Amino acid sequence: MKHPSDQHTLELPEMPTPKKRGRPAILGRAMSAAERKRRSRSLQVGRATRDHNQRLPKALSVEIDASLHQKLKRYCEANGKTQIETLEQLIQTLPD
C-alpha cells in the first residue's frame, strides 16, 4: 500500500485495496445528516406502504404541565408501560 500523496509509485495489480473508513457514500459523495434522515424517513414510509401491518411512525411534540407529566410517569411506572404505549392506548380509545 502506498501513501495517498505518492504520485510516483504504481499500484501492484491484483492487490486488494483497503475499505474506506466511515459511512459509505451514495451517489458518489457523502450525504449530510439531513439527507440521511430524509432518506431514512422515505424508506420507512415505503416499507409501511408495502406492508400495511407495519407501523408508520409520526412525530408528536406537545407541552404539558409539569404536574401532569409527573402523573403520567407515575401511571406508566405503576402499569409497566412506556409513555408512548400509554398515550397510544389512550388515543385508541377516542371515538373516530
UniProtKB/TrEMBL annotation:
Highest taxon above the source species: Bacteria
Biological source species: Deefgea tanakiae
Keywords: DNA-binding, Plasmid copy control, Repressor, Transcription, Transcription regulation
Protein name: Protein CopB
InterPro entries attached to this UniProt entry: Arc_rbn_hlx_hlx, RepA2, Ribbon_hlx_hlx
Residue stretches of biased makeup (Basic and acidic residues): 1-11
Repressor is among the record's keywords: yes
Pfam family, one: RepB-RCR_reg
Region called Disordered, residue ranges: 1-56
